[in-house]
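We treat protein structure as text, and this decision shapes the records that our systems exchange. The tokens are whole numbers drawn from a learned vocabulary of local backbone shapes. Below, we set out a record of this kind in full and without editing:
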Amino acid sequence: MNLSKQEFLNVGESAKYIQDKRKLRAELETEMAKFLANGGEIKQAEIQVHKTNHGTSDTYRKLGCRCDKCMQWALKAGVVKTTQLKGVNA
């Protein structure tokens, strides 16, 4: 193989990175074995539902909520002038 100096260094760094990852993985496996041996349990993570507070600037601007409560806030705050959409004849 005819590698330049930079390519040689990159290969060396990637080999060291792989060795470090293997070492960390082995340490993690031993720690998990100890944890489980001492009666530890692995639990499924729970998904937490984000509860929005409707009628605020964050829900209207950042989350893009257009429910009636948020639209009333936008009218009061002067963010929008009307609840009618352009081009809709209703």
About this structure: The longest helix spans residues 5-37. The two ends are 75 Å apart (CA to CA).
